[in-house]
Automatic annotation (TrEMBL):
SUPFAM superfamilies: Calcium ATPase, transduction domain A, Calcium ATPase, transmembrane domain M, HAD-like, Metal cation-transporting ATPase, ATP-binding domain N. The chain crosses the membrane at residues 26-46, 194-212, 218-236, 390-410, 422-448, 895-919, 931-948, 969-991, 1027-1047, 1059-1080, 1096-1116. It is found in: Membrane. Pfam families: Cation_ATPase, Cation_ATPase_N, E1-E2_ATPase, P5-ATPase. This is Cation-transporting ATPase. Belongs to the cation transport ATPase (P-type) (TC 3.A.3) family. Type V subfamily. Residues 141-214 form the Cation-transporting P-type ATPase N-terminal domain.
C-alpha cells in the first residue's frame, strides 16, 4: 500500500483498488470546452470511461488530500468508477469536542477525526459510507460497531446506552438508519439508457441512413428503439418502485432507546446509530437494524434471511472478561446473539425484572436487509468470461466491417465518386458491423427464461445466473428438509443405566414413558414457543415433545425457592402422560441449538425443588464428550452403528444437577460451566423419511452425468444410509470412509481409509443393516470405471484434511459423495474447494444452515416460500429437489438460445457485408422498402420469437458448449459465411452471364403482365432498380430465413422447433411472402420495393440456388456442427483432452494403480493449512519419522 493507493474491503467479494486524485481547475475548464466543441460526445465518452474523466480533469495525489477517488474492481472485469470525497466540517457537539466517543482510541470516529478542525472525510460507494482513517491511512466502513470490541466492552461501554451528545456525533458520521432506494425520475433513467454504447451506435446508424433518405426504415428502427427504451425505462421504474416500497417499510418505526442517564425515549428508527441500546417489547414487530442481544431472550422469524420460517431463539451475548473480539470469542455461532434487520420479532423473554435490551450493531445498508437490497441494486455479473468472449467476437465483426469500409472507399474511388460520397458510403458500410437488435435479443432470452421459471415457482433476482445453471455438472444437496422430509417420526428411546442400555421403548406401542430424567429431558430440552395459541419450533423438537404427552405453557408463573415469582416457559404432564410424580418443569435459561456446536442445553427447575437441572440434547458423539465416562455405555458405538446404518436419526440426551446455593444469577451462567460432568441418559431414535421425489430426481441427474453430493450436519452413518436408499451411491459401488486425526504429542496427523461393504448374511446393501465389515480382499478399482467407489467423510476429518493433508483434498473431492457432520462454514469451504477443481457447482438447501454455501456456489437454490432472500440467488416454492433439474433444463435452454441468437446475428452481419460489397461493386444498393422487408419482416420477428422454445423434457447426458468462442460455434459462423458468400457470388456471376443482362437497360428482359412496354422502357431507372439489386434482395432475404430456421436448434437442450408456434408461423409467412414477391407479376410490388422484372426461368434459378443453399446449410449444421459423435471422434483423433482441473486429476489417478487407498493409515510429515485462501505449509516440529522396525509394525499404514 502507498499513500496514493489502498484497497477497499480487502479480502471480500467487493474488493476494490482506491486511487487518490486532486481536481485541477484549468483542466476542468478545458474539458468543458471540449464538451462544447465535441457536441457532448466527450462527456458521453467520460460517462462510459470514468477513468478518462478523472485522468483528464485531475492529477494523482495522496489519499489524505484527494477530493476525487478512482475505484477499480479487482475481479476479471477491472471496472472503474469515480467518487467524490465529502467532508463533514462539524462532527463535534457544541463545546464537547473532546467527548469520550471521539477520543476513545479504538473508535473509528476518533481515528477518522482531523484534529483540531473536527473534520471527517468520507465517500459513499454502493450505498455504503467509508470514512478516511487518518491513523491507518485507508478508507474504512462506517455504520457498524467496531469489530475489535470484546464481549465485556460491548456490555460495559454500550450496555447502558449512549448520551444524547454521543448519539448526535455518531449520527452525523454514520448517517441515518434507513434503507432508502430513491425512485429515480423517469428522465434520469431515460438519459442513462440512451447513453448505452449500443444505443449511441444506433443513433449514429440512424443518422447515416437518414442522410441517404432511408426515412421509412430509419423511422421504424427509431420507433422500435424508443419502444425498447420505454419498455426498459418502465421495467427499471417498476423495479425502483418495488425496491423503494420493500426498503422503506421499516424506515420509520418508533423504537424505545435507553439513554445513559437511564431515560427511556421513543425515537424514530432512522435516528438509530451503532452503539444505541434499544428495548425490545412483547409486541410483534420487524427489527429496523442489526443488533446484539445483551439482556433477556427472544424468538424471531428469520424467513427473510434464511428462507426458512421456523422460529429461531436468540440468547444474550455472554459477559466474558476477555480481550478477544466478540465474534472470535463466540466463534461460528455468533449469529445466535444477533437480531437481524427485517426479521420479525415474535416473542421476548426478560430475565427477572430486567428489560430485554440489544445494542445496535449495524445500520442502514450495512444491515442484513440492506445487503439484500444492495445485491439487487448492484448485482455482480457472473458471466464475466462469457461477456469478455462476446466483446472479442464483436471486435472481430467491427474489424471485418472496417475492412469493408476500406473496400467501399476503394470501390467508390474507382467509380469516380466525390470525397463526400465516399465517406458517406464508408460510414454506411460500418453501420452493419453490429446489428441493432443484438442487446435486445439477448436480454429477451433471459427474460423469457426468468418468466418460465417463475411459472414453475422458481424465482430469480439475477437473470444472468440462469445461463450458469446450464453449465452445472455437480450439485450439492443438504439432507434434512431437502432430500428427506422436514418432519421426523419417533421410533423409540433407548435408556441407559450407566454401563449398558436398557430395553428400548417403542412409541408405536402406545405406552406412555415412566418418569425419569430422560423423560424430563425430552419434555424440556427444546426451543418451542407458543404463537397465537399454536406451538411452533423445530420439527424435531415438536415431534419429541409430542411423544412425551406433556403440555406446554409459554408464560407460566413459577415461584422459586427464594419466594420470587417469575414468568417462564413451563411444561406439565398431560392427561396422556400417565402417572408422573412431578408437577412441572420450568425452563429458566436456554443455550439454543447450534449447527457448529451440534448440541443445545437448558437450565430448568422442577416445581417444588431447590436445585437446578441442566438437560443437554445433541449429536451422540458430541453429548458423550461432556458426560462422565462411567455413565456412558461401553457399547454405544455398536448401538449407534446399528440404528444409523438403518437410516434412523439418533440424538443423545444427558443431564446434571446444579446446587443453586452459591451460583451467580442464572442469566450469567456460562455454557462452559454448566456443560460439564453430565450423566448420560440415553438415545432418542427418530425416523427421517425420504421425500417421494428424491429418488427419481437424483436418478435423472445421474443419467445426465451430473454428480450428486450430500452435504449434511447429520451423522455419517445416517447420511450413508440415506445416500444408498436415494440412489446417490449405487448398489454396485464400494464405499471408503475417511477418518482423520489431529497430530498428537509424538504422532503426526493421520488419515485412515476404511473400505466397507454390506454384511453378506444380513441382506443387500440397500437395507444397509448389520455391522460394516472391513474389506481385506485386496480389491482394486476397475480403472475403466473411475466412479465405482465413493468417499464418505465427516466435518471433523474434512477440517483436518484442509489443515494437514491439503494435497489430498482434490483427490478426495473427486469421488467424495457423503460429507456428514458439516458445519455451515465447512459447507462453504467444501463448495469453494469443488469450484477450485473447476466444477460448475450447484447447491440446494433449505436455507437455514446453508446460506454460505448457497452464496459461494455458482448457482444456489433455496427451498423457500419467499420470492427473494439473502440466502441465494434462486428461491423455489417447490418444496423438494424437483426444482434442480427444472432449473438446469431452463439454464441449458437459455444458454443455447442465447448462443443461437448470437450466431444468427453474426451471420446476418456477414450476409449484410457481402451483399453490400456486391452492390457497391456495381454502384447500386437496396431500396428502403427492401431493407424494411429484411429487417422488419425477418430479423425483428426472429429476435422476438426465437427464444420462446421451452426446455427439453429430458436432461441430455452432456452439457451444451459454455464458451462463445468454442470451435463448433466459430466453425458454424465461418462455414455459413462461406455458404452465404458462395450463394451470393454464384447468383452474381450467373446473373451477369445471362443473355438478357444489361446494366444500362433494366426493363427489356421481361415485362410484367398487362403492362405497356413503351411506358416501362421509357422510364429512367433509379439506383436501386437493377438486376443485381433485385437478385441480391431475393437471395439474401431467403438466405436470412434459411439461417433463421437452421439456427433454431431444438433437442437435446430445447423443445423441438414445431412447439414454438409463433416462430413456425413467422417462418411460414416469411417464406410465403418472398415466394409471392418472387413469382407474382404485380405492378404494386415492382413500384413499392423498386425491383425490376426478371425472366421466369431466372426466378426458378434463384429458387433452386436457395434450395441448394438450404440443403447444404442444414446438412452442415446438423450433420457436422451438431454431430456430437463426429466431434468426439475428432477429439480422439487429435488426442484432445479437457483442461478442467478435475479432468486432469482424473487422468492422473487413472494411471495410479494404488488409488484409491484402502484399509490403511497415512501419516503427514508436513501439515498443509488453508489460511485466508492461501496455502501454508506447517511442519510437525515434534514429529520424528519412524524407524524401519516401527515401519514394519505399521503393516499397511503408509507415510505421505
Amino acid at each position: 500500500m502507498t499513500e496514493r493507493y489502498t484497497l477497499l474491503n480487502q479480502g471480500e467479494d467487493n474488493e476494490m483498488e482506491v486511487f487518490g486524485y486532486k481536481t485541477v481547475r484549468w483542466r476542468q475548464a478545458l474539458c468543458i470546452i471540449g464538451y462544447i466543441f465535441s457536441l457532448g460526445f466527450l462527456r458521453v465518452l467520460f460517462y462510459w470511461k470514468p477513468e478518462l474523466d478523472v485522468w483528464c480533469q485531475c492529477i494523482p495525489c495522496t489519499l489524505s488530500k484527494a477530493d476525487v477517488i478512482l475505484l477499480r474492481t479487482t475481479d476479471d472485469r477491472r471496472e472503474f468508477s469515480k467518487k467524490k470525497v465529502i467532508e463533514i466540517r462539524r462532527c463535534t457537539h457544541g463545546s464537547k469536542s473532546d467527548h469520550q466517543i471521539v477520543t476513545r482510541k479504538n473508535s473509528i470516529i476518533d481515528k477518522s477525526l482531523m484534529k483540531p478542525m473536527g473534520r471527517i472525510r468520507y465517500m459513499e460507494v454502493q450505498k455504503i459510507r467509508y470514512v478516511w482513517n487518518t491513523f491507518e491511512g485507508k478508507f474504512q466502513k462506517i455504520g457498524v460497531l467496531e469489530e475489535e470490541l470484546s464481549c465485556s466492552d460491548i456490555h460495559s461501554k454500550f450496555g447502558s446506552g449512549l448520551t444524547a451528545e454521543e448519539q448526535d456525533i455518531r449520527q452525523q458520521v454514520c448517517g441515518p438508519n434507513s434503507i432508502e432506494v430513491e425512485i429515480k425520475p423517469i428522465w434520469i433513467i431515460f438519459m442513462k439508457e440512451i447513453f448505452n454504447p449500443f444505443y449511441v451506435f444506433q443513433v449514429y446508424s440512424l443518422a447515416i441512413w437518414m442522410s441517404f433518405g432511408y426515412f421509412e426504415y430509419s423511422g421504424i428502427i427509431l420507433a422500435m428503439t424508443i419502444l425498447s427504451i420505454i419498455a426498459t425505462v418502465y421495467n427499471l421504474r417498476v423495479q425502483s418502485i418495488k425496491l423503494h416500497k420493500m426498503s422503506i417499510s421499516y424506515n420509520s418505526i418508533m423504537v424505545t432507546v435507553l439513554r445513559k442517564n437511564g431515560e427511556l425515549k421513543e425515537v424514530e428508527s432512522q435516528s438509530l446509530v451503532p452503539g444505541d441500546v434499544i428495548i425490545l417489547s412483547e409486541n410483534k414487530r420487524f427489527l429496523p437494524c442489526d443488533a446484539i442481544l445483551i439482556n433477556g431472550g427472544c424468538t424471531v422469524n428469520e424467513g427473510m434471511l434464511t428462507g426458512e420460517s421456523t422460529p429461531v431463539t436468540k440468547v444474550p451475548l455472554p459477559l466474558i472478561e476477555s480481550p478477544m473480539p466478540w465474534k472470535i470469542q463466540c466463534g461460528e455461532d455468533y449469529k445466535r446473539h444477533v437480531l437481524f434487520c427485517g426479521t420479525e420479532l415474535i416473542q421476548t423473554k426478560a430475565h427477572g425484572h430486567d428489560l430485554v435490551k440489544a445494542v445496535v450493531l449495524q445500520t442502514g445498508f450495512n444491515t442484513t436487509k440492506g445487503e439484500l437490497v444492495r445485491a439487487i441494486l448492484y448485482n455482480k455479473p457472473m458471466n464475466v468470461k462469457l461477456h469478455r468472449e462476446a466483446m472479442k467476437f464483436l471486435l472481430v465483426l467491427v474489424f471485418i466491417a472496417l475492412l469493408g469500409v476500406a473496400y467501399t472507399a476503394a470501390v467508390y474511388k474507382k467509380h469516380g465518386a466525390s470525397v463526400h460520397e465516399i465517406v458517406l458510403m464508408s460510414f454506411l458500410m460500418l453501420t452493419v458491423a453490429v446489428n441493432a437488435t443484438l442487446p435486445a435479443s439477448l436480454t429477451l432470452g433471459l427474460l423469457y427464461g426468468q418468466t418460465r421459471l417463475k411459472k414453475l415457482g422458481i424465482f430469480c433476482i439475477s437473470p444472468q445466473r440462469i445461463i450458469l445453471a446450464g453449465q452445472l455438472n455437480l450439485v450439492c444437496f443438504d439432507k434434512t428438509g431437502t432430500l428427506t422430509e422436514d418432519s421426523l417420526d419417533l421410533h423409540g428411546v433407548l435408556p441407559s443405566n450407566g454401563t449398558s442400555f436398557q430395553q428400548i421403548h417403542l412409541f408405536s406401542s402406545g405406552n406412555s414413558m415412566p418418569w425419569s430424567p430422560l423423560l424430563g429431558a425430552m419434555a424440556s430440552c427444546h426451543s418451542l414457543i407458543m404463537v397465537d395459541g399454536k406451538m411452533q419450533g423445530d420439527p424435531l423438537d415438536l415431534k419429541m415433545f409430542e411423544g412425551t404427552g406433556w403440555e406446554f405453557e409459554s408464560h407460566a408463573a413459577h415461584r422459586t425457592q427464594d419466594g420470587e415469582s417469575i414468568s417462564c416457559t413451563m411444561v406439565k404432564p398431560g392427561s396422556s402422560a400417565g402417572e408422573i410424580p412431578v408437577e412441572g418443569i420450568a425452563s429458566l435459561h436456554q443455550f439454543p441449538f447450534s449447527s457448529a456446536l451440534q448440541r443445545m442445553s437448558v437450565i430448568t427447575q422442577i416445581t417444588g425443588e431447590t436445585d437446578l437441572t441442566v438437560f443437554m440434547k445433541g449429536a451422540p458423539e458430541m453429548v458423550t464428550r461432556f458426560c462422565k465416562p462411567e455413565t456412558v455405555p461401553h457399547n454405544i458405538s455398536n448401538k449407534l452403528d446399528y440404528y444409523t446404518t438403518q437410516g434412523f436419526r439418533v440424538l443423545g440426551l444427558a443431564y446434571r444437577l446444579l446446587q443453586k446455593e452459591g451460583l451467580p444469577a442464572i442469566e450469567h451462567l456460562e455454557r462452559g460451566f454448566i456443560e460439564t460432568d453430565l450423566i448420560f441418559l440415553g438415545l432418542l431414535i427418530l425416523e427421517n423419511r425420504l421425500k417421494p421425489e428424491t429418488k427419481s430426481v437424483l436418478q435423472e441427474l445421474r443419467t445426465a452425468k451430473i454428480r450428486n453430493v450430500m452435504v449434511t450436519g447429520d451423522n455419517l452413518q445416517t447420511a450413508l444410509n440415506i445416500g444408498i436408499h436415494c440412489g446417490m451411491i449405487p448398489k454396485s459401488s464400494k464405499i471408503i470412509i475417511i477418518e482423520a486425526s489431529e497430530p498428537q504429542k509424538d504422532v503426526p496427523a493421520s488419515m485412515t481409509w476404511k473400505t466397507i461393504t454390506e454384511n453378506q448374511e444380513n441382506g443387500h446393501k440397500e437395507s444397509f443393516q448389520g455391522v460394516h465389515t472391513v474389506m481385506n480382499d485386496g480389491w482394486k478399482p476397475n480403472t475403466s470405471q473411475p466412479e465405482e467407489f465413493h468417499f464418505a467423510i465427516d466435518g471433523k476429518s474434512f477440517q483436518i484434511l484442509l489443515h494437514h493433508f491439503y494435497n489430498m483434498v482434490p483427490k478426495v473431492l473427486l469421488n467424495g459423495t457423503i460429507f456428514a457432520r458439516m458445519t455451515p462454514k465447512q459447507k462453504s469451504s467444501l463448495v469453494e474447494e469443488f469450484r477450485k477443481l473447476e466444477y460448475h457447482v450447484g447447491m440446494c438447501g433449505d436455507g437455514a444452515n446453508d446460506c454460505g454455501a448457497l452464496k459461494v456456489a455458482n448457482v444456489g437454490v433455496s427451498l423457500s416460500e419467499l420470492e427473494a432472500s439473502v440466502a441465494s440467488p434462486f428461491t423455489s416454492k417447490i418444496p423438494n429437489i424437483e426444482c434442480v433439474p427444472m432449473l438446469i433444463k431452463e439454464g441449458r435452454n437459455t444458454l443455447v438460445s442465447s448462443f443461437s441468437m448470437f450466431k444468427f446475428l453474426s451471420v446476418l452481419t456477414m450476409i449484410a457485408l457481402t451483399s453490400l460489397a456486391i452492390l457497391f461493386w456495381k454502384n447500386t444498393f437496396l431500396s428502403n422498402a427492401q431493407y424494411l422487408m429484411q429487417d422488419g419482416a425477418i430479423v425483428i420477428p426472429v429476435c422476438l420469437t426465437a427464444s420462446l422454445n421451452g426446455p427439453a423434457p429430458k436432461l441430455a447426458p452432456y452439457r451444451p458448449p459454455g464458451q462463445l468462442l468454442s470451435p463448433s460455434l466459430l466453425l458454424s459462423v465461418f462455414l455459413h459465411f462461406l455458404l452465404t458468400l458462395g450463394l451470393q457470388t454464384t447468383a452474381f456471376v450467373l446473373l451477369q452471364a445471362q443473355p438478357w443482362y444489361n446494366e444500362s437497360d433494366v426493363f427489356s428482359a421481361c415485362l410484367p403482365l398487362n403492362h405497356n412496354a413503351e411506358n416501362i422502357t421509357a422510364r429512367v431507372p433509379t439506383m436501386t432498380e437493377t438486376y443485381v439489386a433485385t437478385t441480391t434482395w431475393f437471395v439474401t432475404g431467403m438466405n436470412l430465413i434459411i439461417i433463421e430456421f437452421v439456427f433454431s436448434k431444438g433437442r437435446p437442450f430445447r423443445q423441438r422447433l414445431y412447439t414454438n408456434y409463433l416462430l413456425i408461423i413467422t417462418i411460414i409467412l416469411q417464406v410465403a411472402a418472398f415466394l409471392f414477391f418472387l413469382f407474382a407479376d404485380i405492378e404494386l410490388i415492382y413500384t413499392t420495393f423498386e425491383v425490376v422484372c426478371i425472366p421466369f426461368y431466372w426466378r426458378a434459378y434463384i429458387l433452386v440456388m436457395v434450395l441448394v443453399h438450404f440443403l447444404l446449410s442444414y446438412a452442415i449444421e446438423e450433420g457436422i456442427l451438431e454431430n456430437r459423435n463426429l466431434w468426439l471422434l475428432i477429439k480422439r483423433l487429435c488426442n484432445y483432452q479437457s483442461k478442467s482441473q478435475y479432468r486432469k486429476l482424473q487422468r492422473r489417478l487413472k494411471m495410479d494403480t494404488e488409488w484409491p487407498p484402502q484399509n490403511r493409515t497415512d501419516f503427514a510429515i508436513k501439515s498443509v493449512s488453508v489460511v485466508d485462501s492461501k496455502i501454508v505449509v506447517l511442519k510437525n516440529a515434534s514429529y520424528q519419522p519412524p524407524t524401519e522396525s516401527s515401519r514394519e509394525s505399521l503393516g499397511q499404514q503408509k507415510l505421505i
